[in-house]
Amino acid sequence: xxxxxxxxxxxxxxxxxxxxxxxxxxxxxxxxxxxxxxxxxxxxxxxxxxxxxxxxxxxxxxxxxxxxxxxxxxxxxxxxxxxxxxxxxxxxxxxxxxxxxxxxxxxxxxxxxxxxxxxxxxxxxxxxxxxxxxxxxxxxxxxxxxxxxxxxxxxxxxxxxxxxxxxxxxxxxxxxxxxxxxxxxxxxxxxxxxxxxxxxxxxxxxxxxxxxxxxxxxxxxxxxxxxxxxxxxxxxxxxxxxxxxxxxxxxxxxxxxxxxxxxxxxxxxxxxxxxxxxxxxxxxxxxxxxxxxxxxxxxxxxxxxxxxxxxxxxxxxxxxxxxxxxxxxxxxxxxxxxxxxxxxxxxxxxxxxxxxxxxxxxxxxxxxxxxxxxxxxxxxxxxxxxxxxxxxxxxxxxxxxxxxxxxxxxxxxxxxxxxxxxxxxxxxxxxxxxxxxxxxxxxxxxxxxxxxxxxxxxxxxxxxxxxxxxxxxx
Amino acid sequence: xxxxxxxxxxxxxxxxxxxxxxxxxxxxxxxxxxxxxxxxxxxxxxxxxxxxxxxxxxxxxxxxxxxxxxxxxxxxxxxxxxxxxxxxxxxxxxxxxxxxxxxxxxxxxxxxxxxxxxxxxxxxxxxxxxxxxxxxxxxxxxxxxxxxxxxxxxxxxxxxxxxxxxxxxxxxxxxxxxxxxxxxxxxxxxxxxxxxxxxxxxxxxxxxxxxxxxxxxxxxxxxxxxxxxxxxxxxxxxxxxxxxxxxxxxxxxxxxxxxxxxxxxxxxxxxxxxxxxxxxxxxxxxxxxxxxxxxxxxxxxxxxxxxxxxxxxxxxxxxxxxxxxxxxxxxxxxxxxxxxxxxxxxxxxxxxxxxxxxxxxxxxxxxxxxxxxxxxxxxxxxxxxxxxxxxxxxxxxxxxxxxxxxxxxxxxxxxxxxxxxxxxxxxxxxxxxxxxxxxxxxxxxxxxxxxxxxxxxxxxxxxxxxxxxxxxxxxxxxxxxxxxxxxxxxxxxxxxxxxxxxxxxxxxxxxxxxxxxxxxxxxxxxxxxxxxxxxxxxxxxxxxxxxxxxxxxxxxxxxxxxxxxxxxx
Lengths: 474, 569
Ligand code: SF4
What we know:
A: 1% strand; B: 33 strands
């Protein structure tokens, strides 16, 4: 005991000196400055406005990136996925996963500047499905399909070490707080809505909102609009205390990966050995992906549970239809995001005399020689597509909503600590918290293990037991 | 193992040191970047007072090379400063990034020392899985309901006029133009309502004298060069002016000649950087404006066209393409309902363009197989339909103003056509010097009823009424012909020639010669002069006739004539 306390004292004293709060404050100001800095880079200098003999050179379009690089990207992606899965499943090494994550951040983030990206690829696929004229590049298909396939086999190892967006957030986790399951559950609806909207906007040719609102692209490229840098900085700042906020509560691809991961053939476990419920891994996951055992959970009788389930199943089509209807009612504001519809509404405003001054867009349109009737007709067609799209969007959200409710209606009893396969990023942080893992690695002896188990059962172990802690990797 | 490890302590302290140092450096960079940002925001080098002043000076003195050099030097300086700041920001950002990275890594390293093991002394606590699920379920249901209501209300609150179009219905816009009756009460275009040279207003002054000031109500200097004639609508008089550097529209109070507004139109998208060459007697603003009673429209020799509200707000403006015109574009505008009609005949071929009066967008743009011309279109109601009639070489052509479809086409003209056609009682009259004056009979298949080849007008447009046609030649002859047969009834010579056109008002022909004298002659089969009214200055424009008033744009002044004026504005 005495020895243990001395270890604790050392840590506590280190902690008192550890300026974590001050560090965070500084970080905040830094991010603010970065925002201002990056935002300025985007300013453009206007052309001189008096006439000279100078003739402006013709516009030249840079050549497309050589085809070979596309294959290089795919090869790097495959290699990274294979390694990530190997590190997580075979080597069970957080350290190796961490360095692979750093590599991905550098390569896919800073070198490839966040493009091509698996998260955004969802939109290209949606666009290609609804617009026959679009030839979707091979690399985009690969970036969409491969992470999903790997997840179906090995869980979200893509999130752990390959996705640069995840890596950027993982790198800034400093003092993660645990969100209540209610908060996490509610926020978990956001990615579903975002995914639905992104697919709708991509399919209707409105735009790729995931790319437009990618919070990290500004950092990867050292330049973005003020608002986007601000958004990115906010996400990273939040990420110091709420681990991977974008991955968990916004990432649209995360929705698909979550589903795939639940179905995955093999998923990482806290320990490949039997769990002794020693509780040491309880707080190891910054993402709240570890379920505690609940052998004694109080729930109503099976009858009530079944009745609730039946009611939900019966209500499924009703909720789906209702949500679809609500979604379809939103077609006007949704369609307004489409450039053609937005332009039409501006033209209508001007033509109706409700606005006296033309915008750049309406001026350009009026100079184009196209008639307003043609424009309105096209805009009307787009609105109708949004009406249909609104039904599908609402219906999709409705289904997910009902299944979430079903998940909350059924009580699954867990005899031991278990990973939530949908939410787990396979980051490997929890592995080293398991004393059996340490025993296997040879960092503790059987005797030490038994001693720990005894203490754990007595409830006398203090936070921070010596042999364990030195083997954890943040 | 249980003793505080020396190596660990050193590493921890090193990490802390790195965190502190990188934190401080990053903070300093932060302050510098923010200061730089604020500075860039507060100074606008390109719109500095000095530069604007010099630019202003250059406007008035476009050939001053020294001034240009000075501007260039100042501009270069501003650009250099800008790019230096850009470099500073970029470098600062990279450095900041580096320091933040170091800070994060060191903080992260330090945080690895923090225990993330649970406090096992506390025990696992009661199992609340089911209660948590219950709470989650409730909040999810409430949130779902909230979203549902939100979506419905957002849908209900959002309006879109496109909805109606989406249902294949045109938006119902009430007639956004003045009635034909209101047009007759005003002077909405070149040569009056329909451009036909007939004034419908009453109590038109018969006598005035610009030299003595008799019956001159007010007189103000013309604000800017231009051979266009004034148009008048409901107490407001509009005219345009342009030179090599400026284009503008002016609006005056018809009561007192007070300038109500001036709208500058120098920044129209697509406007040519270099103004086209024009001759001195055409200039850059020869085309007369037009109005639909709701807005006014203007076109310049640059091909710039614009629609302005009655209070001078620009509604739309666009360039129709630089006119290929060796004298300068001079065809005037005319409005039919919601269409602004433009005769755009050029060296490279002609076009008839209809623009939406509310938006300026093209409704139709019909190519015309004609040579260049300077004449203006007229709009006539033939009883069965409204026709838009254009005089040009080689054809007089009639169009449906709504669709731009050609209704008929008669080849009879040649040369450089400037006079506009005239219409009365089912007959169209078109003339050009060195070609002919033709009477085209529209009863049945349109055809030439007669033609005359003497004393033809070169610029001035004919006018017809009561079975008579009047035509003024630029050398000073006014002839009167029988509209049905083309027989010459009389011809009279005047001291000065005519560029302005005869206007018919209350049984009289008002015809102003180049010296500014308006001759009032009975519109009759016999020649009879009623009055001879000098303006006091030269003029070549068309007077605007309003009840009890005539407005004339002279070379120097804009003059309002009415009974009771003493000439001292
Ligand atoms: S591997 Fe462990 S720590 Fe990492 S996300 Fe999954 S459960 Fe959490």
